[in-house]
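Recall that a protein's primary structure is simply its ordered list of amino acids. Everything else, from secondary elements to tertiary packing, is in principle encoded there. The following example makes that idea concrete.
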Amino acid sequence: MPDPHTVTPFTPLGTRRKPVLPIPAFKTVLGQSRFQSDKAKIQVLSTKEGQQLLADRRLHRPISPHLGIYKWNMGSIMSSMMRITGVAYSGSFYLFGLAHLVSPYLGWDLSSATIAAAFGDLPEAAKSAIKFAVAWPVILHSINGMRHLTWDRAKGFNNGFVQKTGWAAIGATTLSVGYMVLSMS
């Protein structure tokens, strides 16, 4: 009778081939018990000692590589930017709407005239920087949305097209926002 620990995988033609692990090594792995041989020892610790033990053990845990193992490319950067700009603008609109609703109860004056007067008192460089910072993500989100519309038509799924249109979106965004900021000064 064959050894029950022997693995005999088959090739597609039905011929036998050698096991991946040699039989003695396979038996060694299977011969080990999955349970501890000693009974568990319960140790009573104070709260402070328990927290210290937990903190010491956390220092020896492996750290997940998270995003550090990935090579960033234009597709992933633009996808991230599309999500970040969408969340940032929808969130800011909700926050401003909520602030506008509660402003009478808190004594804030968020009327258009007050906001325009406060913005008008800023230096020209600060106005231009604020305009650029507010308009750039909106325009990038819009232009990047056009890229996504081409993908909805099943066009441009190769890496070269994604790279070119990604850089084109960044360039077009920067040029158009720069033109808007300079022409509205």
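The CA atoms of residues 75 and 159 lie 8 Å apart. DSSP finds six helices and no strands in the chain.
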